[in-house]
TrEMBL record:
Organism of derivation: Umezawaea tangerina
Protein name (Swiss-Prot/TrEMBL): Phosphoribosylformylglycinamidine cyclo-ligase
Lineage of source species: Bacteria, Bacillati, Actinomycetota, Actinomycetes, Pseudonocardiales
Keyword Hydrolase: no
Catalytic activity: 2-formamido-N(1)-(5-O-phospho-beta-D-ribosyl)acetamidine + ATP = 5-amino-1-(5-phospho-beta-D-ribosyl)imidazole + ADP + phosphate + H(+)
Annotated family: Belongs to the AIR synthase family.
Amino acid sequence: MRIPTVTEKGVSVSVESGMTYKGSGVDIEAGDRAVALMRAAVSSTDRPEVVSAIGGFAGLFDVSRLKGMRRPLLATSTDGVGTKLAIARALGKHDTIGLDLVAMVADDLVVCGAEPLFLTDYIACGKLVPDRIAAIVSGIADGCRQAGCSLIGGETAEHPGVMAPDEYDVAGAATGIVEADAVLGADKVRLDDVIIAMGSSGLHSNGYSLVRKVLLDNAGWDLSRHVDEFGRTVGEELLEPTTIYSKACLDLVARAEVHAFSHITGGGIGGNLGRVVPEGLMATVDRSTWSPHPIFGVVGEVGGVAVEELEKAFNMGVGMMAVVAPDSADAAVDVLVEHGLSAWVVGRVDSSDGTSVELVGEYN
């Protein structure tokens, strides 16, 4: 049986009946199964302000708490995970990549002093495999719980013919809130302020194009290769989740005089710390106060990558920095250690000679 002829640009085209959306590569039933699998993980992130349930067309969040604030400002941030996804796909391990997504988004919000309230995600894939999507979302939910925000909504899109069946990409956007007079940043930074470093868990989610080029493409290392310096395989090292600093940073703001935060992502310490240093001042960072994770030295040695180039691409073992008043330095370190972070005084704010950030000394 045929359905009526459709005329396209003057040419009669006979269309066979029986063609389905699923036959074109989009499986709506698989999407429904994925939602059912992720429901419990998503619900576990609910804050008291969450009104809507999973499955609605939009997420609802009760903002009546704003009535008690003097001048509340909403903060927003969006990001992805980059080519770290290639490692997750190659290993078939998808339950940690969501932690990276939340870290990249929520920790950008906290830099201005904002409390992350809720996050929405977007997952595009070549073929919707319910268990894989549920694993990704479970990681996002885990990250939201660690950051203190709710996973209030999301979208999963199947793109057959555009993406390969095993390909996917993730992105997220989050909203936070902060009092206008409590916004942190360069305008609060002063001469002689102390810079506190917070240790990273490794690469986090930046510089993977360089890492993959050096270790996997040029050196030909397999992800299953055990590396003594790592104490585990290449794949396990590269898939280590990003540290989420949000709750620790918010507690630090409540218990010490914090003037600024800097999330150390792409661009390294120099590229990110410089964004919160005002004109006329300079952040001096002493490399001798810490030892970078072995992954950075291995990439440098195997790839012949100079330290200066490594510092442009990687966090070098410092995932977040806080700029605090001098008399808050000791208390700041204590607060961060209470949250299970490695933290130490890494430098100070000096007068500038035209440079916003100067790294001095050699790594320990």
